[in-house]
Amino acid sequence: MPGDTLIASLAAIVGDEHVITVAAEMVPFLGDWRGRYRGAARCIVRPANTAEVAAVVRACSAVGVAMVPQGGNTSHCGASIPDNSGQSVLVSLSRLNRIRDLDVPNNTMTVEAGCVLQEIQAAASREGRLFPLSLAAEGSCQIGGNLSTNAGGVQVLRYGNARELVLGLEVVLPSGEIWNGLRGLRKDNTGYDLKQLFIGAEGTLGIITAAVIKLFPQPNAVATAWLAIASPQDAVTLLGKLQAGFGAGLTACELVSDISLGMVLRHIPEAQAPLERSPWYLLVELSSSGDADALRVQFEDFLGDAMEAALVNDAVIAQSGEQAARLWDLRERISEAQKIEGFSIKHDISVPVSRIGEFLDRAGDALNAAYPGIRIVAFGHVGDGNLHYNQSKPEAGENASFMASQTDVNRIVHDIVHTLGGSISAEHGIGQLKREELQRYKSAIELDMMRAIKQAFDPKGLMNPGKVL
């Protein structure tokens, strides 16, 4: 079937206005937000519901045309960008944006894949509930993409990754069939947990169209503090003491290097340093269903003891929700500030929490020996061992040429991560960025099992080809 015939078929399914073929109108869909990947597509198709997604998949499958699912297009690894052949169809899920059900007694919400994460959070909040998945792109990322990459964010420490926040899925399979697994059950021991195959699969096994997600009671009290500390090892020690003192009340524990903060202060006009500068910082959040004043007093006592033990050099506790938001803004805008300085070599790695300090020491020494004067921007989720570990040159103009060193820099970083029993991708996925790296660090039997699953679900290889495997 010629390309124009396929486009006519797609238009008959979703309407002429929802099949985009004009080059200028396709531009926003064909490049990633980091400016690293740019692809081409036969067209952009924007179905409005699951039945239309299924019909689009059947039409493309019938003529052997590859499909690239796309949500909010905030991927860090190029997972939602097509290749340069211009032959694939990009399937945008942005019109699947309904909240189908909100079951407050069951603490669940059924949402379509195109729902923006922040809007889901707001809908839960209006009912006195919390959807805890929270990340910097929450104002534009969509839940389908969050689930397809098993997104993490800042509250994994207490609530888990996206994988732990899903009870059921609705998925359009590569055949065009619809699997309705939208069950809001905490216990369902009836064979293989099929939903987990699609979470983190980056659209290579099917297209997630809806999900049943978990909600939690909205905490009555929240305490947020910015701490100045001497080292990552002190951060790990503090984490253990916070967990012992507050248990599940420890919502987030974020590590920020002074280099990272300095970039935010330099490039984000409204940003202000909360304390005198320090080599490292921790952003800590506690939450509770109890009394806010009692939580604050307990936190102040804890910090007093930590300062006496020389684990904390200085601290500030937010006095209001607005102040807490400003502290979080310093953490969340690191990536934005780094982007302003140009390209950098980025790593989204995880190691056992106990080995965070060792990783930072070993990787820092190795990189500085290989690239004297290199600038290392390190920050991340110390509570779950996930660090964003990025390298660039101090002069922004040197970064474009520095990108040629990416393979060698990756080898230094990822080999150390692997030696420490870590992962080369903690929460951003594989996409096309780390596809070759996956081959290096996954065992042969793991790769064989992954290929077998891909073959079983997508024997024609039409669903987001060139990603992950």
From TrEMBL:
UniProt-listed Gene3D superfamilies: 3.30.465.10, 3.30.70.2190, 3.30.70.2740, Uridine Diphospho-n-acetylenolpyruvylglucosamine Reductase, domain 2, Vanillyl-alcohol Oxidase, Chain A, domain 4
GO molecular function: catalytic activity; FAD binding
InterPro entries: FAD-bd_oxidored_4_C, FAD-bd_PCMH, FAD-bd_PCMH-like_sf, FAD-bd_PCMH_sub1, FAD-bd_PCMH_sub2, FAD-linked_Oxase-like_C, FAD-oxidored/transferase_4, Oxid_FAD_bind_N
One record GO biological process: respiratory electron transport chain
UniProt keyword list: FAD, Flavoprotein
Keyword Flavoprotein: yes
Names of the cofactor(s): FAD
Domain annotation FAD-binding PCMH-type: ranges: 37-218
Top-rank lineage group of the source organism: Bacteria
Similarity field: Belongs to the FAD-binding oxidoreductase/transferase type 4 family.
PANTHER family, per database record: BLL6224 PROTEIN, D-2-HYDROXYGLUTARATE DEHYDROGENASE, MITOCHONDRIAL
Protein name: FAD/FMN-containing dehydrogenase
